[in-house]
Amino acid sequence: MSRRIQLFCCRVEKKPRDTVLILVLCFARIHPPEFFKNKYAVDEAHYVTELSSVLASKKPAVLLTLRGVNTDSGNVSKEASFEGISQFNVNNTILHPEIAECRVIKTDMELEVLRYTNKISSEAHKEVMKAVKVGMKEYELESLFQHYCYTRGGMRHTSYTCICGSGENSSVLHYGHAGAPNDKTIEDGDLCLFDMGGEYYCYGSDITCTFPANGKFTAEQRAIYEAVLKASRAVMEAVKPGVAWPDMHRLADRVHLEELTRIGILKGNVDDMVKVHLGAIFMPHGLGHLLGIDVHDVGGYPEGVQRAEEPGLRSLRTARRLQPGMVLTVEPGIYFIQHLLQQALHDPAQACFIDSHVLQRFRGVGGVRIEDDIVVTATGMELLTCVPRTVEEIEAFMAEGQSSAKSFDCLSSQKK
After folding, report:
1. 179, 301, 332, 339: which is deepest, by most CB within 10 A?
2. Among 321, 180, 298, which Cα is nearest to 244's?
3. CA-CA-CA-CA torsion for 334, 339, 343, 346, nearest 10 degrees?
């Protein structure tokens, strides 16, 4: 027998502002209603066969059912139904935005679960960094990540299909799908971009670590990695309630352009580069997204919040102003995607800023993404992810991992 969960809100005639939540479950083993009442801390629990009669006894003025569009995926939630629902006055438009908003702001209990998913997933990433060797298949590291999450954390599922890109695959944003199933052999000199997150009781994590397969960054890899890390830390320093998320994307974008200019790949005035959207050539995705029960969680574009049309910014999965209790990913990246580079080199407005000779040295880097999960607090943010991040930390940790498997001690992650 399959497990089913249905949720309805009833608005009672005598008290129009009151709502009664009834949780109806059906398991292979039939427990008494009192079992579910205690397990889920609800006021009432009834068998699904009694649904229509119990609701009728409440004399609700209206039943609220959940139907609406996920502004991230475009998918429409499947509206609940049951035999006899036609006898009720049903409204399927009120509930969705309210439930979505509840999911945007996390409770203390939800944050505890999200801290746990990040702790276990961070440890799993570190196990991967210790184990990686030239000659391994990408999927071997994916398997190790999943094995660690399950055996050490009871996390049976991942939040999404793991992205384990090495070499040129590190520049493929959603590598790892069925058409490219993490099946390349890792080679000496490859940069590994591993985007993986475990899930616990439906709450997800979303972490990306980028590191050299042989444990030592090349000069080119190091330059790009440190540029992305600088953008990540600039954003984390700026995060606080009231900040507009698109402004955080713009901040990361500007840091990338400044650093690419310092490296020599770009030349000219950064303000002028911003005007022609040059940053979107190197970071064609959004800075980050809401995280919770879904890896790209709902509520990104509530009524009144509009999506930008500019390259890069239009890929943002939310454009909201930050509030305490929001959980988001911070994931700046710089990628050398061949067709985007060619596109820029053939566009006079963008090509004038690119030093093609220096660029040639970096084309083989692939891509670098640094992704952490954060909670917005009253004064700033709390970092949930705990993995080695600087070049020095990564190289030292990988060297230790190969010799003695010492663990990485995370410093305090709370920004005061």
Report:
1. 332
2. 321
3. 120
